[in-house]
Amino acid sequence: MNTEVVIKANNISKKYDESYALDSIDIEVSKGQIMGLIGPNGAGKSTFLQSVLGLLKTEGNLEVLGLDPRKDRHKLLKEVCSITDVAVLPKWMTVQQLLSYMDGVHPGFDLDKCISILSRTNIKLHSKIKVLSRGMVVQLHLSLVMAIDAKILILDEPTLGLDLVYRKDFYSQLIEDYYEGNKTILISTHQVEEIEGVLSDAVFMNQGRIVMQDSIESINKKYLELRPDQNSINAAKSLNPMHHRTELGREVMLFEDMDKDKLMELGDVRPPVIADLFMAIMETTKGGGQS
Question: Where are the domains of the chain?
Fold first, then answer.
């Protein structure tokens, strides 16, 4: 596993008026990781990503590729690219003109790769950007960013406005880039179920704090969901699950650090999906100072 740290955040805080958008958070991101920032609106996901890009001044120590994002932003932007949920492109240009412009000004832009990505969409090179739908503008923006050879790719709600088919295609392309270029990727999204398959690590955030962070591999070992057989429900409850819910009339219990073989004697056992685990963690930390 690559242990080269590319983002190091220690005791990072950002306060607006009397509330914290970020409250003393610590995050380390290593080269090659695909880290998902997961949390509700106001959790601090976008604030953290903006601080990594040098767009916000924060308290604490933050290094990105060994640089201070605020002081060395001009150097950082040669190695980092990003896209947010608001795609803004020059409406007076044609798609071809925009691609030619990017090819001329950005040394890391791969024109052929961008055209290849666009070929899987309905976007025509001769079309003016002002006639494209919102979804097509997002597609174009994503195509531009994914064709840039950057060390770190930051995606803040990258697929808002896209239909399901293109969202799946986007994440498939993301994986190809990840394995080919060994990039580091940070993704913030509400569509947790769509990114679970691409993540190497997950960070759960709520009200500016980190509630949990771990690798997907460790999460799948640490947490297990049990759907007990009808005659094993009481035995399962006696094992003190950390959370339980009812799904389609059936009990579902979440356990932490529990022997898998022991649970398998009581019913169907599987790792929880990230969205369900997040909701369980949020409920169990209510009132505990973390939520």
Answer: 5-207, 218-284
Biggest alpha carbon distance in the chain? 69
Question: Quick check: 23 and 42 in contact, CB under 8 A?
Answer: no
Kindly report the pTM of this predicted structure.
0.84
DSSP states along 174-189: HHHHHHHH--EEEEE-
Question: Residue 25 is which amino acid?
Answer: I
Provide φ and ψ at 88, rounded to 5°. -120, 115
| Distances, alpha carbon 131 to alpha carbons 16, 101, 118, 167, in Å | 38, 19, 16, 21
- What amino acid occupies position 218? S
61-114 residue pLDDT tens: 999 999 999 888 888 888 898 887 666 788 899 999 999 999 998 888 999 999
Query: Is the distance from CB of 160 to CB of 166 less than 8 angstroms?
Result: no
Superfamily holding 5-207 = P-loop containing nucleotide triphosphate hydrolases (3.40.50.300)
Among 206, 211, 208, 171, smallest CA distance to 187 is for 171
